[in-house]
Amino acid sequence: MTKHYRITLLPGDGIGSEIIAIAVDVLKTIAKQLDIEFIFQEALIGGSAIDATGEPLPAETLEQCRHSDAVLLAAIGGYKWDDLPNAMRPEAGLLGIRAGMGLFANLRPATILPQLVDASSLKREIVEGVDIMVVRELTGGVYFGKPKGIFETEPGEKRGVNTMAYTESEVERIGRVGFETARKRGGKLCSVDKSNVLDVSQLWRDRIIKLAPEYPDVELSHLYVDNAAMQLLRWPKQFDTIVTGNLFGDILSDAAAMLTGSIGMLPSACLGTSGPGLFEPVHGSAPDIAGQDKANPLAQVLSAAMMLRYGLDEPAAADRIEQAVQQVLDAGYRTGDIMSEGMKLVGCREMGDALIERLESSK
Ligand code: NAD
Q1: Does residue 363 surpass a pLDDT of 70?
Q2: Domains along the chain?
Q3: 250 lines ligand 1 (CB under 6 A)
Q4: Phi and psi (nearest 5°) for 49?
Q5: Of 226, 288, 319, 330, which residue is the catalytic one?
Q6: What is the DSSP-derived secondary structure letter of residue 311?
Q7: Could you give the 3-state DSSP secondary structure of residue 286?
């Protein structure tokens, strides 16, 4: 029997529409092969939503996302909207949708594909075999804590304030995602905080330690965030799964991303306790290359694979997509961001066509 999934597509800004078009073609090809029907519906978010409606996250977009089976997002943002006040910038749409859909856990894999080892800025022996999952808390911490704002404390003197806060239950629910993810992987969880300085981090560490006896099969360790940043560059293979708060996770997952050589290769999943998940590349809207057919669509395509695996429980479909990605890389296809000597330089569209060809020939 044909399975039907309603997918909300959020192309956003910059390269968004170019890369999401490739992911949709890939999903349509897979659907034909596996007796699945995807019902795609586009909605506005970010700068394009600001231009069309005056706000970065129109209420209809959030409503539509909540009623989907999964949401596939490309990226938001661009120079055009950089001077708007924070609450009206495209990024507010992203924070809003994560909070509005209750997506508190962000899973960001940083896996070195054997074909791209030399694309990393670190030495081959340091990065070969790296396979890290960063589990980042997404709806709490300093990006959401109150009070926040810029206040005039005395005439002529302003003070900028953000508040880093976590409740025990927020730490517990992300901690559980961390332990459970580690359990399905290499069985090692490293919790990253700054408990030598921050009270909020002390609470974080205490709560994570309290959870540990429930997961005796997972080896728990702790690092301060400054040390974790250093260790990621020094010897990344020591890490299996990392669990951390919103701000630290934002920075560390980008650092982990760079180990892999290109931010254009990395997918991510945002999950809640129930309801649809949101799947998006780690990179931004790359306004510097938008509209030039230069974007690497593979992070978006791999995000679609994560959507199938973690959002729709269709692991066979996810496997097929991941294999096709391996095959196009094996065949030497490279977009500019992952280009190396002797490889075949292609644009976004041609990379997509190569993927479809591999998928069609492997049915
Ligand atoms: P970025 O990730 O957009 O770009 C950083 C660099 O990586 C650029 O040189 C870009 O060309 C390159 N790059 C990114 N994705 C690529 C891809 N798929 N293929 C090839 N090259 C790629 O980050 P930035 O320049 O800091 O931010 C640009 C805009 O994106 C900003 O408005 C920012 O706020 C926004 N942003 C959005 C998200 C998101 O939607 N989740 C995340 C980060 C940044």
Answers
A1: no
A2: 1-111+263-363 (3.40.718.10), 131-259 (3.40.718.10)
A3: no
A4: -70, -35
A5: 226
A6: I
A7: coil
